[in-house]
Specification:
Length: 269
């Protein structure tokens, strides 16, 4: 009985062993798996911000200020987010060649890697919309009919019914959407460049944006057709009605006059 009592384990022995095993497991996990990856990600992000700041200082600071605070020649970039940088620089609108009412689209100056670095730097100045993932703007399986309805309700007033663009006030204009990439269409809705209003995901969900993108691709794609005949600039029913009244009714009147003249001649002879 004494030997059995001597070999009996302490009541807390199992708990001590369990705590020791958990401590060892947690230490090994923290030391090897996530720490290296997290540190690598942090290092890469810091390097991108550093490189982006150098690019920004060279090409953007003269108008937007050394810290992105803005000047009399350019607005503040604090809080615009990486998506705004990717759109403006990725479409060649920035840097501007000269001040004007609106920055026109032109050939891109920077590579995509440099644009990503500048976007990382601007994002570090304040929270803003991030560059969307490919899944966000992929129109595969989107509802084109719903996209057309959304586009006519929210976009056609400026871009016209088929996205061909149009003039606005004070020298501004809505650009032609033909040939614009899906990513830049999404970013434009997300950030509201130039005179365009912002359509955040809280008011225009991601799926609605995909539907709109699918509609724009359909009406401006290579396989797009105009089942009604002439597109008439894509301005919608007003233009079509004016064409019908001006040319259609005019042609009918001309035919009626011609028939009446022929009838009168026939009676005289």
């Amino acid at each position: 009985m004494k030997k059995l009592s001597a070999r009996r384990r302490h009541p807390l022995a199992a708990l001590v062993v369990l705590l020791f095993a958990l401590a060892v497991t947690g230490g090994l996990y923290a030391a090897f798996a996530p720490a290296d990856k997290a540190q690598a990600d942090t290092t890469a992000q810091s390097l991108a911000i550093k490189e982006g700041k150098q690019l920004y200082t060279t090409g953007c600071a003269s108008c937007h200020g050394t810290g992105g605070q803005g000047t009399s020649d350019g607005p503040s970039l604090v809080g615009v987010g990486a998506a705004a940088v990717d759109f403006q620089v990725g479409t060649g609108r920035m840097p501007m060649q000269q001040p004007g009412a609106q920055a026109p689209k032109k050939p891109v100056v920077y590579s995509q890697a440099e644009i990503d670095q500048m976007a990382a730097y601007i994002a570090s100045l304040g929270p803003g919309p991030a560059v969307p993932a490919k899944e966000a703007y992929d129109p595969e399986g989107a509802d084109i009919a719903k996209g057309g309805e959304l586009f006519r309700t929210n976009c056609a007033q400026c871009h016209n019914f088929t996205g061909r663009g149009g003039a606005l006030t004070e020298g501004k204009y809505a650009p032609n959407l033909e040939g614009v990439s899906n990513k830049h269409l999404y970013e434009a809705m997300l950030t509201g460049p130039q005179a365009m209003p912002v359509f955040p995901d809280s008011t225009t969900p991601e799926q609605d944006k995909r539907d709109i993108i699918a509609y724009v691709n359909t009406v401006n794609g290579e396989d797009s057709a105009n089942p009604g005949g002439l597109e008439l600039g894509g301005f919608g029913p007003v233009t079509e009605g004016l064409f019908a009244w001006t040319f259609g009714l005019g042609a009918m009147i001309a035919v009626a006059i011609w028939v009446a003249a022929r009838t009168a001649k026939a009676r005289k002879s």
